[in-house]
Structure formats: C-alpha cells, structure tokens
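Support case: user asked for a sample of complex input and structure output to validate their parser. Sending the pair below.
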Amino acid sequence: MKKLTDTSNSNNFFTMVYDIVAKIPPGRVTSYGQIAALLDEPRAARTVGWAMHSIPDGIELPWHRVINAQGKITFNKHGQGASLQRALLESEGIVFNLKGRVDMSKYQWQPQEG
DNA sequence: ACGGTGACGAGAT
DNA sequence: TATCTCGCCACCG
C-alpha cells in the first residue's frame, strides 16, 4: 500500500473523493459518509476514509475538514495527527466541545451553499 | 480472480 | 453515553 490511485485518472473513486474534498470551504467540515453519499454510494464511507488516508504527496487538499459522522476526529498518525487536524480546524474558527467533538449540525458543509 | 484491509457508520448492549 | 459488533466497498498484490 504505497502508491495508490493515479490522480490523473479522474474516473477513479479516490480522485472523485479528492475533487469533492477540494470544494469544502474553510470553517466547514464534512463526514466520510457524506462524501460517499455525494458520489452516490452512501455505503462506501470506509473507502472514502481509505482514500483520505492515501492522499498522494504533491497534491494539496483541505483534508482536515473531513471528520467522522459523530463530529469526531479519527485521524491517528503515530499516536498524533488528531491534534494537528484539530488545530487546523480551530484556526478556521471551528469550536470543539468538552468531548473533543464539533457540532455537525452547525459546521457540516452544505454542498448547495457553493 | 480472490481475499485482506481501512482516517466509516449505524444499531445493539 | 461509551463500547462493541458487523456490514460496506474500492484498491492492491
């Protein structure tokens, strides 16, 4: 699991995920399941998560704006990662509650907005 | 072609 | 509410 999707192939599921992530505006978040739903495959949340885990070096995406449906960060890199993602989100104005979660009803991205 | 795998999700306990 | 269990699906060797 080193190299993954060839981003030049826009037909790949991974690339489609990246295209959506790239559209998430600052101060907003979305869930893996929502992205899957936008791709017309609501049961492929895990695949979306894998796509995020496999973002190729070289391309820039607001990957930190993708969290799980519970409003919680699941990204875990070397025991860290979550702290980095949280810091990035907080820098955009997103507030975490005492449980370390965000209010999805308040921050979840609404595609129709833009 | 087949099976293992993963930054998930929803329901049950 | 916190955990645990099981189903899902695309990508890779």
